[in-house]
Every structure is written in C-alpha cells, then in structure tokens.
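Discussion board: Methods & Data

I've been asked by a reviewer to show the raw model output for two of the constructs in my manuscript, not just the figures. I'm not sure how much to include, so I'm pasting the format here to get opinions. Each protein appears as its amino acid sequence followed by a line of discrete structure tokens. Is this the kind of thing reviewers expect to see in a supplement, or should I convert it first? Here is construct A:
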Amino acid sequence: MLLVKTRVAPSPIHGLGLFAEEFILAGSVVWKFTEGFDQTFTREQIEKLPEPAHFFLAKYAYLSTKTGRYLLDTDNGRYFNHSKIPNTSTKTVAGEKEDIICADKDIESGEEITVNYADQEADHIDGNILESFYSKYTLVDEVDPRLKKSFNVDHQTS
C-alpha cells in the first residue's frame, strides 16, 4: 500500500506512471505490503482464475523475490515504472511480509516515482506463470521492461 499521496498520469518512461502528489523526504517509506489490502497468490490460485484475471495479473502483478508469491498492489502502486537509476529502492526489513520501498532521495511533488524491478521481482525463472501470459496475450508493448528483457530489447530508461 502506498504511504504517500500519488496520482497516475502519462509517463515519459512507459504508458502510465506513478507521480508524487506531495514532497517525499529521502528515507521515507513509500510503499509497504498491507495484509488484507494488497494481494498475494500462489501459482495454483492464479491457474484457477478466469482468463480476464490472467490478463490483468500479467500486466500488474509480479513474482516477489522475498516470498516467491505473486504480488498485486491494489492501489496506484501497480503503476511504478522501472528505471535503471530509480529514485526509490527496495529494502528487506525484518518482520515485514514483503520488501518495502523507500525514497532514496527527496522526491518533489509532480516527480515520477520509479523503482528498479530487478530488486523486487523474480522474472525469468522457470515456472513464472506471468511470463507465459505475456506471450499468450501478446503484451509485449503493455508490460514495460519485464517482457522486453526476455526478448533482449535494450532500453535505457526502462
């Protein structure tokens, strides 16, 4: 769950992005998993869902490196765009079910909030059901760098 005020708007990085609606001080927790609000799934649970849910999860969920479960942010957190030089970082904190995301620097109101996907999601591993959906539903252009990495598409900002 996002712990800062944000809005979703067109992004110069990819599609829609997450933008600060307030000044965020360096070191602030921007996002943390909130049980009962954010959702996690096993592969088996996802397989039982109807096709529209597969399409949605392929676009917005990721396989967590911490728990090995598929995580879905249920608020604007699903609009974090990837950057090789993000303004936040993913941190493991004892007692937290999932990793948290903290501001690495002061983030100005109106600035896009970015994260390095490689720090939080386990892409390109055997058995990641979301990756099979990328191809099945031809989401090459909709799933920012996650799918494109597997096709060796090089892009600097994303």
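Construct B, same format:
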Amino acid sequence: MSGAEFPPPSHTTPPPTAEKMAERVRALLAKAESTEFPEEAEALTAKAQELMAKYAIDQLAVDARRGRTRSEVTSRRFDLDITYGSAKSSLLGATGEANRCKVIWSPSSKSATVFGFPEDLDATELLFTSLLTQATAAMLRASPPGSHGSSVRSFRHAFFLAYASRVGERLQEVSRAAVEQGRLEHGDDLLPALVRRDEAVDAAVSQEFPRLRHRRVSMSNGRGVQAGVAAAERADLGGTRITAG
C-alpha cells in the first residue's frame, strides 16, 4: 500500500514513539510518588494515564485504517504480597479495567493473571506499580495511632478496597475522555475497533478460565473505607471482581 492512501494526521507535531511515551510516563509517575503535595501527585498521575490512553487510541486508529493488527492478546502474572493480597488485587483490577485488560484473581496462589494486548498490559503494570506504592504510603500515614492486631488489619484491608474502588472510577473517567477525544479525531470507525479488542480479551479469558465465578468483597472497617476514599481522591493520578474458581 502506498503512503498516499493513508495521509498522516493533520497536526504538525509527530506522535511520540513507544519508548518516548513510556519515558514520559515513568518520569511523571516518579514525580507523583516523590512529591509531598497530593494535588500535584494527582495531576501528575492523571496526566500519565491520559498520555497512555491517548497513545493507545492513536495507535489503534492507525492500525484500524490500515487493516493491521499490531499484536495479539497475551497474559501476564502478578504475584501479590500475601498481606492484603485480595484487596490489592482490587487495585490491580481497577487499573487493568481502565486500560482495557481483564484481571483474574487466584486466591489459592495469591496471584493475578492479567489478560490484554501487550501495550495495554505495559500501561497497567506501570500505573499499578505506582498506585500501589502511593496507596501503601497513604495507608501507613492514615492508620490509627496505637491500634494493633485485627483492628489494624481490618482498617488496612478496607483502606485498599475503598482506594481501589475510587481510583478505578477516576481512571475510567480519564479513559472515557481519551476514547471520546479519539473518536472526534479519528472518526466513528474507532469504536468498532475497540469492541473487537474487548471481545478478543474476553475470548482469551474464557479459553484460559472456562469456569469463573464472581466474588463480592466486603469492607467492615468504616474508618478504613473513609481513609481509603479520601486518599484516592488525592491519588497520584472493588466492588465485584472476577475470581478463578
């Protein structure tokens, strides 16, 4: 096919390469993790997610126009710390969902399998690693002084679940905005391409885990819930998860 059949976008600034984009995202997340100001951290992480989402959308639009599939669905295993592993898997699930991935939590092995296209898996891993670092620091700061034993465990478990739920909502807002902006820039053909990607991920999950059950998680510590939501509102940017039977 000739280049004339597929003219470059109308903007004059060339899109970043994958390496350049990842470099910018890592720099933003590193600043988000190190800053002492929650508002600055929030803006930095939101910008990182926006960059990743826009890059993915732009690449998908180019591939769709050229009738090309850049990669295939694959999976990646995340071994989660046994401490609050179930709650942390909710944060991974929220991050994965915002980046078009599907997360399967296996309680017996304390691990999660994430399905998606390689570039979406990379985005999920980058963001989850940063958010987990920030959530852990926020949780330690928010833990009630003088508490110990089961009260501390229930607080921290509830904190992670509430944090994951609220962060997930915020990440989805950024992702939806990126899709809408992509539709305006690239046309309605983008939406069927996104649907096909979602279907491909679902098919890969069904093939690997033909028998899945939904497990609803609970949060019994009200102070932990409130602290987790508050931290997520400041996040440097739950509910139901799919669990392997």
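Answer (T.O., handling editor elsewhere):
This is acceptable in a supplement if you add a one-line summary per construct. For B, something like: The chain is about 60% helix and 10% strand.
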